[in-house]
Amino acid sequence: MKKLKKICPKCGEKLVNILYGMPSIEAIEAEKQKTLYLGGCEESEKDPIYHCFKCNRNYYKNLKEDNRNV
Ligand SMILES: [Zn+2]
Q1: Distance 45 CA to ligand 1 centre (A)
Q2: Partners of 65 in beta bridges
Q3: CA 47 – ligand 1 centroid, Å
Q4: What is the pTM of this model?
Q5: CB 25 within 8 A of CB 19
Q6: Measured between alpha carbons, how far is 30 from 37 in angstroms, rounded to an integer?
Q7: How many angstroms is it from 16 CA to the middle of ligand 1?
């Protein structure tokens, strides 16, 4: 599966995927390494799928910013 690297439109930092649902030990470790962001247990199609650790913002698939928690 081909993975495209997404870049934060604000700061240019690499975006990481947001993982929803109950995280595994590996996922918690991955978040510490900032290669993954844990989005919590609730999942819906409207939720953003990318996270920027530098800006601490979430982004949708089209890199539209999630303004709900700003
Ligand atoms: Zn950023």
Answers
A1: 22
A2: 59
A3: 18
A4: 0.81
A5: no
A6: 8
A7: 10
